[in-house]
Amino acid sequence: MTGHVLRAEGSISIGEHVTGSVFGVTLNLDTIWSTVVAGAIVIGLGLWMRVKWTNETPSKIQLLWEGLVGQVNHEVESNLGRLHPFVVPLAVALFFFILIANWLEIIPAMDKLPAPTSDVNLVYAMALLVIVGVHIHGVKEQGFKGYFKHYAQPSPFLLPLNILEEIVKPVTLSLRLFGNMLAGGLMISLIAFLLPLYTIWGANAIWKLFDMFIGAIQAFIFALLTVIYFGMMSAHQADHTEHGDEAGSEGDGGDAPPAGEATAADDRAEPARAG
Fold first, then answer.
1. How far is CA 153 from the centre of its chain?
2. Could you give the CA distance from residue 92 to residue 69 in angstroms, rounded to a whole number?
3. Residue 28's Cα: distance from chain center in Å?
4. How many CA atoms lie within 13 A of 4 on its CB side?
5. 20 has which bridge partners?
6. Number of CB atoms found within 10 A of residue 31's CB
7. What are the pLDDT digits (tens) for 103-138?
8. I want to staple 28 with a disulfide (CB 3.0 to 4.6 A). Which of 17, 76, 231, 247 is the partner?
9. Which pTM does this prediction carry?
10. How far, in Å, CA of 243 to CA of 246, rounded?
11. d(Cα 249, Cα 112) in Å, to the nearest integer?
């Protein structure tokens, strides 16, 4: 067993990619073509769904898709309130892209089609896409003043912590996915090196099934956090609007006299005008 471990330690590498250089910039080519394959599959499924879409007699796949998106919309609205219409489609698209990207590794392609989500560059890019989209949405909904004001809520003393939280969000969102998918690839390599040849196929099959389950869970978590982040920004906007309405109501109430006093003043004014 010691010899196997040493052999594994000497052969298993982390973070090695097929690379190329364009204008002096090093690119991970295997991540790029795996990402293109996963994206092409998602786009192909979408185009196929559009061709099959009908209002007369919907197909089984259309019913499945409508039920899935409808259920997601219902759960989001019941827990987070009504969000912008683009949020749920974005989350569903990210879920399927990450799911397919995670499952690419189970294809027997002689390590030529690795899971692109095991490359930290891709997961950082997806996390930045989500977080930048959240902040752009916040500025559009609340305006610059309302957007920056929410960093000082509920107390100005929490301003540094709120800013730190926003900085950490893309890091935690990306590293959670990256760590799990990288560990899955390493486990497959360890199984190949540590176990005898006649048992590799069984252990590999069992682990790949488990790895598919982990990939689905990670895709769901990424999509769920995307919805939650947009929901939190919409909640800040709702609080800002509510406080503005309350301030307006208090201002209107301060200018107008009570109903009883107004009626009494009118009654006193009538005899004066008559005299």
1. 24
2. 8
3. 24
4. 10
5. 27
6. 22
7. 887 777 666 778 888 888 899 999 999 999 988 888
8. 17
9. 0.72
10. 5
11. 65
